Amino acid sequence: MLKISHLHKSFGDNAVLRDISLEVAQGQVVAIIGPSGSGKSTLLRCINLLEKPDSGSLQIADTEVQAATLTRQQETALRAHTGMVFQHYNLFKNKTALENITEALIVGKKIAKAQANETGLQLLDRVGLREKAHSYPAVLSGGQQQRVAIARALAVKPKVILFDEPTSALDPELVGEVLQVIRSIVDHQTTLLLVTHEMSFARDVADRIIFMADGAVVEDGTPEQVFNQPRHERTRKFLSSSR
Ligand code: ADP
Ligand code: MG
What we know:
Elements: E1 2-11, E2 14-24, E3 29-33, H1 40-47, E4 55-60, E5 63-66, H2 72-80, E6 82-85, H3 97-108, H4 113-126, H5 142-155, E7 160-164, H6 172-184, E8 191-195, H7 199-205, E9 208-213, E10 216-221, H8 223-228, H9 233-241
Parallel strand pairs: 3-8, 3-9, 6-7, 7-8
Antiparallel strand pairs: 1-2, 1-4, 4-5, 9-10
Magnesium ion (MG) is lined by residues 40-41, 164-165.
């Protein structure tokens, strides 16, 4: 479903992603862990081309792009296969919960408003927020805003959903409701990439754990392998410091 080959990305002389290659099967749930500054967010942002990789190639479903020859059309096509959930929710503040979800359907996919609203309400049901359809983000808790953001990411039925530390900005008592919604969208069809510091959640929900350090994939395996028998000292140190 997702194939990354020899991806490189630098900011000035800071080499942030150094030759990342990765294949993820359809429906797989992959948790990406690693220290701050290791390139996790940049990797997700390169996958949906919010950042342009310097070199390498990316494929999602039937869309394959080379960084060197990337066109606007390819960018749009690749991005249409992805949904992204950010640490700070990034909802449109001047739109209601429902409007946040239907925006991409009405403007992007040219779906009639009535039908988009129906889809939007169903998605709000899925994240347990139907009664907040007409509320603006400002009156929602962080956990509720993030659940709306997840519904928004689901709206366009992406092949791959990218979560960048979706619970890091939340008060501790609101983390559980968001993790529960993430767990509920695992359907073994949609591919999920989840950058997280929630180790027990990662262990529990992911099929695969990737540990990144200094812009490279250091360890890649099942939760049992990575958490119980890490092969690299670097992984061991990280795990013992994050418990
Ligand atoms: P992580 O998500 O693992 O904490 P990031 O991908 O955010 O790591 O950042 C990796 C490195 O890239 C850091 O050194 C960060 O300062 C740098 N970086 C990220 N985004 C930018 C940017 N837009 N401009 C310059 N440097 C950046
Ligand atoms: Mg980050």
